[in-house]
Design goal:
Layout lengths: L1 E5 L5 E8 L5 E4 L8 H9 L6 H10 L3 E4 L2 H7 L8 H14 L5 E6 L1 H10 L5 E7 L8 H18 L27 H12 L17 E6 L3 E3 L8 E3 H7 L1 H7 L2 E5 L12 H15 L5
């Protein structure tokens, strides 16, 4: 079943619900639309599955009911530069479950959509479990991401009238000079993430841990450290370093923590379905007491 749902900013999002209606529901806000042809080939060069959403849905739908949509893609098409606050994102997600008549559900998010899951978990009692990939559950790099998004926004403003932004070969990650790459993007698209991180500057992810009483899993790839060049504020977003440092404490707090091994297991590789599904599928079956 697919349905067009009006979010709180009046924009319309396509949402789907498939799988086993008698089982637990998993919310997948990461379910991107499949792409084909040259666009798909370009994504493969970056290690991205061009059918990421489809493969996530297919991989989970045998055992679970899957509530899927592409929230990031929607916000890139319908940016809300002043209003992408944690509160408003959570309102959007709860609007979706209400419209789809879903009472309780689990949440899987990766990267910034993982931190959204944490915000959701402290604002509703409808979550059955939480999976955060590629963003630490405590000591999250909010301040570093504030720097990166601010710099990205500045570039977007400065470069919007530039005819040629970057003459580098961007056909693969190896051919890009990350220290000097320039961004050309609709400023509204990146300003909304400035707004989101601004609203998280005072957020204490340690102080809220006592509110989390559901099963929860945090994971990242062992090479998930992003070193940004001067154009992005010369900051390091060390996802795996933070997760490793706090692994014991997180486990004491009730989290399951997994570090995905591999010399190529960076932020992009650790979000692909063939990496994530073998981890989250058995975890969900175990934690939600699903009959195999």
């Amino acid at each position: 079943m697919e349905k067009i749902i009006k979010l709180i900013d009046e924009s319309e999002l396509k949402v789907g619900l498939v799988g086993n209606p008698n089982s637990a529901t998993i919310m997948l806000p990461v379910a991107k639309e499949s792409v084909y042809g040259q666009e798909a080939e370009n994504l493969k060069l970056w290690g991205v599955d061009p059918e990421l959403g489809k493969h996530f849905i297919e991989g989970l739908a045998d055992k679970f009911q899957i509530l899927y949509f592409d929230y990031e893609g929607h916000r890139m098409q319908h940016p809300v530069p002043e209003n992408l606050t944690p509160e408003n994102i959570v309102k959007d997600l709860l609007t979706i479950v209400d419209e789809m008549n879903v009472k309780r559900f689990s949440y899987y998010g990766y990267s910034w959509l993982a931190l959204v899951g944490l915000q959701l978990a402290i604002r509703t009692d409808r979550l059955e479990s939480l999976i955060m990939g590629g963003f630490p559950a405590i000591d999250g790099p909010y301040k570093e991401m504030m720097v990166v998004t601010n710099k990205t926004y500045e570039q977007a403003l400065n470069n919007q009238n530039s005819p040629v932004i970057d003459e580098q070969d961007q056909s693969s990650p190896e051919k890009i000079d990350w220290d000097h790459i320039q961004v050309k993007i609709n400023p509204d698209q990146t300003k909304q993430f400035v707004t989101m991180y601004e609203n998280l500057m005072e957020f204490d992810d340690r102080e809220i841990q006592h509110k989390l009483v559901i099963p929860r899993l945090a994971f990242a790839g062992e090479k998930d450290t992003i070193v940004y060049g001067e154009n992005f504020g010369s900051v390091t977003v060390d996802i795996i370093g933070i997760l490793q440092k706090n692994k014991q404490e997180l486990e004491h707090l009730g989290w399951d923590v997994e570090i995905l091994k591999g010399n190529d297991m960076d932020h992009t590789k650790a979000m692909q379905p063939n990496t994530v599904l073998p981890l989250v599928m058995p975890w969900l079956i175990r934690k939600l007491n699903i009959t195999r």
